[in-house]
Each structure stands twice: as C-alpha cells, then as structure tokens.
Amino acid sequence: MKVLLLGGGGREHALAWTLRHSPALQRLYALPGSDAIATLAEPIAGDAADAARVAKLAEELDIDLTVVGPEAPLAAGVADALQAAGRRVFGPSRAAARLESSKIFAKEFMARHGVPTARFVACAGAAEALAALDQFPPPVVLKADGLAAGKGVVIAEDRAGAEAALADLFAGRLAGSAGQRVVIEECLRGEEISLLALSDGERWVLLPPAQDHKRALDGDRGPNTGGMGAVSADELLPPELRKRIEREIVAPVLHGMAAEGNPLRGVLYCGLMLTAGGPRVLEFNVRFGDPEAQAILARAEGDWATALLSVAEGHLRADLLRWSPQPAACVVLASGGYPGSFATDLPIHGLEVAGREAQVTIFHAGTALRQQHWVTRGGRVLGVTARAETLAAALEHAYAGVEPIRFEGMQYRRDIGRRALAWIAAGARI
Ligand code: AMP
Ligand code: GLY
Questions:
Q1: CA 153 to ligand 1 centroid distance, Å
Q2: Which residues line ligand 2 (CB under 6 A)?
Q3: Distance (Å, rounded) from C-alpha 131 to C-alpha 135?
C-alpha cells in the first residue's frame, strides 16, 4: 500500500512511526513532513491544505490512502478533493469537519441530537453578546466560533473580564476572523478527559482514553497551549463510564452526522468534562489530538495502514487495531516563550543519549536537521514518550528520557500525569 501522510508535527511523526509498523505498507510519503519524519517517509515540499495540489499528488504517485494529520487541510476541503478524484482518504469531508471548525455548528448539532454539553448562546455581534451575558453568572466561557489554534477560548472570572474578552474577540484581537461569531457558555467543573473514536461514518471503535495538559505551567496555570503533555491509560475511564460516554455522546454524534448527510470518516475526538451531572462535551476535533496521539499511538499494535484504509473505504475493520495494556506518557519540551513568540534554530543536545532508553520514543514536533545536528524549529519541539507497566512507571521513564536533553530556553511541565494519577487513585468516579 502507498500512503500519503499530510502534516509535519509531533502527531504526524507518531502517525508515520505507527504506519511504518504495518506489514501492508510499501511506501510512505509525507507532505510536507519534517526532517524527523523523513527518516520514516519520503518528504514532499508543499502546502498540505492546498486541496487541488494534494489531489493531483495522490493521482501522480498513485496513492492508495491519504492520512490527514492536522485540521487545516480538512477545513480546506482536502478530503472532498481526494474523494472527487476517486482517492481514498482517512479524514472527514469539509462539511463533517465543521464539528471542529465551527463551534456554533457543533453546539447547535449537539442541541439537535440531545448530546450533553454546556448550556450556551451563539452570538453574531457585540450588543447581542453583552445582553446574553446576563444569563451566565461568572465564571463564564467565551469561544470564538472558528479555528483558532487554542487561542479562541477565554474563561472569564467576572463580568468585567467577560466584557473585555468579548470586545477583544469581536475586534479580532484574540482570534482574528475566527471571532466574528462567539459562543458564550456555562463554565463546567470536573475532570477533563479525551476519548477518541475511529469511524467509517456508520461503525466506530473507541481508542484508549487520554488526558492532555493544555496550560503552559505546572498546576494548570499560565496560558493555554496546543498541549504540554499527555497520558493514555485504560484506568482513566472505568468500563461503565466509558460505555456511558459511548452511549450518550459517541453514538448520537456519529448517528446524527450520518443522518444529516455528513457521515464522519476518520477520527471523532471528544474533549469531555466529567461533571457531577455526567459527561459533557467541551469540544470536538475531527483528527488525532497533539500530543494525545503520541501517548495513544505509543500503545498501538496491529496493522494500522490497513485499518485506516478500511475506515476510508467505509468498512471499518476494528479487528486490525490492537492496544498494549501498558499506559503511556508524553512530555512536551517547548521553546522558551511558547505559546508566545520564541527563538528558533537553537541546537538541541543529548537526543542520542535520551533515545537509548528502551521504553522511550522521541517524537519530533518542531525540529530541523542542520549539518547533521538537530535544531529547534517550532514552539513545541519534542515529545518524549514512554510506555511501561504502570502509568507511574511510564512517567518515570519519560522524565528519565527528558533528563539528558538540553536546548537554550527549554521549558516543560514537571507535573505531567500527576492529575491522572490522583484521579485514578480516587477511583476515576464522577
Ligand atoms: P476548547 O478549545 O473548546 O476545548 O477549550 C479549550 C479549553 O478550555 C478546554 O480544554 C477546557 O480546559 C476549557 N473549557 C472549554 N470549555 C469549557 C467549559 N464550558 N467549562 C470549563 N472549561 C472549559
Ligand atoms: N491537544 C489538543 C488538540 O490537539 O487539540
């Protein structure tokens, strides 16, 4: 099988690594890939969100399956272009991708299908939004409608903060044009868990649960980021709770999308708050999370290339996906200043030593190779990932893998997985 992978970050490095383990894989290309991904796939320069170019490339290289990593190509209609050209694609149509690309679409869809989520109002203008604020005693959550790479969500502690954030959103200062329309919603409390499903539009299979760490600093403080680390462990969701989420959320979402004529082929990522009143949806993504993918895929076994092809063909073969029962953890090493501005091209030391640990796999998020030496290239630089008998052991191995790595300004959280360990120790109950 010839596979084209779209994207070039840590998630795509993990996807390339997983696909490489497939016996069915003959050739793997990556657009644009990265220097790290180039050790696993043949890189092709260009823009993964250029739908016409991707379709032409798939034609020229006679690609059997295109696997879409990030959200931008999906929102740009890359899957539609590939399908129109008669090419198989793992990743939903632009219409189905609205579950992620429009928070208003997602909220109204959930309301139509009785999917539990935070109470909300959608607003198209500042005056309307200010009036709607009266219905939401602080703290209140404000979200830009469109894709904003994590910058479009504000949790305002009081009315003045909410008004200031609304002004920023509508003026385009927080999330650019993504903030032309805004969702105001109630603030939910509880444990935040990610549960992903692979779906062919009709059937689905759940992946092992994961927990992200979105805030930049230890103790969940500091600004929101793309994700500073993640863990995946079955114990995060006891079987009953997992079944409840599947019944109350995954099933109605996938059935609802199909019933509305937009079957979701690819990943349904449910960002959930496990509240005292039950699981509630915070957000959907229609792709693997980054860095959740690194933790989840570190546990992947089986023939992923054939499994993802079966999704693309509309005949999901869940039997091809198997999981190690061992938990996994990923610690992100980020550039100093991230998620704000940061320097690049700084030499990275100690990678070879770190990679020698048997349990450790290092996924590159933002690096480049300069004269045989790795340098920093992005905000998130590396995802040091480990799998072991217990979550505590996986975390120990991951942090042991971090130890020898150095670059100027390197920052990372020291408390990845601490919350998950406490949640599991308390019985993982709501
Ligand atoms: P989102 O992009 O919608 O997932 O929002 C980013 C982060 O904001 C989430 O991961 C949560 O930590 C937080 N968040 C979003 N919506 C809510 C909510 N209704 N209540 C509390 N926290 C929220
Ligand atoms: N780590 C969160 C995301 O990928 O959206």
A1: 7
A2: 212, 226-227, 285, 289-290, 292
A3: 8
Which residue matches tokens 């991707």?
54
Q: Ligand 1 atom 18: the closest Cα is on which residue?
A: 187
Report which ligand 2 atom has the smallest distance to the Cα of 283.
Answer: 5
Whether the CA torsion 292, 294, 299, 305 is positive or negative: it is positive
Q: Taking the complete model, does pTM exceed 0.90, yes or no?
A: yes
Enter the tokens of residue 69.
Answer: 């990593």
331 — alpha (psi -120 to 50), left (phi > 0) or beta?
Answer: beta
The predicted-structure confidence for 297-322, as pLDDT tens digits, reads as follows: 999 999 999 999 999 999 999 999 99
Calculated CA dihedral for residues 37, 41, 43, 49, nearest 10 degrees: -80
Per-residue pLDDT tens over the stretch 127-185: 999 999 999 999 999 999 998 877 789 999 999 999 999 999 999 888 888 778 999 99
Inter-residue contact 237 to 209 (CB < 8 Å)? yes
Query: How many CA atoms are closer than 13 Å to the CA of 144, on its beta-carbon side?
Result: 24
**What is the best residue among 290, 294, 338, 416 to mutate for testing ligand 2's pocket, by most ligand atoms within 8 Å of CB?**
290
How confident is the prediction for the chain on average, in pLDDT? 96
Q: Could you give the CA distance from residue 361 to residue 88 in angstroms, rounded to a whole number?
A: 30
Alpha carbons 51 and 49: distance in angstroms, whole number: 6
